[in-house]
Structure formats: C-alpha cells, structure tokens
Amino acid sequence: MFKLLVSFIKFPKPFWFRAIAVLLALSLPATELYAYVPSLAIPFPAGPAAILVDQITIPGEIGTIEEVYQGKSNQFVIFIQDAHVNYSAQKSIASIIAYLTAEHGISLVGQEGGEGEIDTTLLHAFPIQEVKEKVMDRYLRRGEIGGAEYLSITGKEEFNLVGVDERKL
Q1: Strand partners for 115
Q2: CA-to-CA distance for 40 and 67, rounded, in angstroms?
C-alpha cells in the first residue's frame, strides 16, 4: 500500500524530505485519537466549601483525568491538554468546560493565545441559537476560534473567558 501511494505521487524533493512528509502524514491521524483524552492537572482548594478531589469528575466520553496534584493554596487549576486547530479536540474541550461549569460551578476559564478578557457577549446574545451554532461551528472547523470561545458564544452556562498570554513575551 505504501509503495503504491508513493508511486502515484511525484515528489520533487530529496528522499529525506519525502520520508519526513510521509511520517508526518501518518502521524497526523494519531492526534485525532489523543484529542479524546485531555489531560487535567488539578490542585484543589481547602476550606468548608472546598471541592474535593473525588468530587471532580469528567464523563469518559468527553475526557479523562490524567493527573491530580494537591497544592498548598486554597485555589485550584484545571489544565486541559489542547491540540490546536483540531476540530474534534476543540469540541471535546468545549464539552469538558460545559460540564465543569454546569456540574462544578467553574466560572473562570483561561485560554492561551490571547491577553485579558475575551468578551463574547455580543455574539452570545444572538437570538437564533441554531444559526449561531452553525456559524460558530464553521469558525471552529477552520481553526479561527477554539473550543472555549465556541462554548462561550454558543453555550448555556456563562463563564468568564480570559486570555492568559502576554504580548510582550
């Protein structure tokens, strides 16, 4: 099969270039498999209203908890491993955030690739949900928005979306 594929494609580049191209082409489908298993690293808060490690769950069909870390402060972070511009990974991220906001009251989501508050209020307020989801799904498929932005615009649960990067870095 591999020889048949290579024989039909004319490569103007040297062998090492072709080998890298084939390896890359074969490895890209593997990112689809890993998109369904986001990694979470969670230090949990202490105190009477604390979220306990056993209370945070992720349904198996949207992801798994890979690692838990108990920090010393009363704050916690949930880290979702991201596959950039991968549609199925971004849909999984949106599902995980929707679940965490609905079931665990998570109200702040930090996203890389932006700085400061990401205000989606105007788009979120669009009255026709079906049209909004269709248009935002197209942007998500093209990689122009991520799963968190998609959910912030189309989702029922409200949360603050903040870019965690700094331009000067």
Answers
A1: 164
A2: 6
Phi/psi at 102 (5° precision): -75, -45
3-state secondary structure of 89: helix
pLDDT digits (tens, 9 = 90+) for 91-144: 999 999 999 999 888 889 998 888 889 999 999 999 999 999 999 999 999 999
How many beta carbons lie within 10 A of that of residue 112, not counting itself?
Answer: 11
Could you tell me the two tokens for 83?
A: 């596959």
Joined tokens for residue 141: 């498929």
Judge if pTM exceeds 0.70: no
From residue 45, alpha-carbon distances to 33, 71, 75, 158 in Å are 32, 8, 5, 22
**Terminus-to-terminus CA distance in the chain, angstroms?**
46
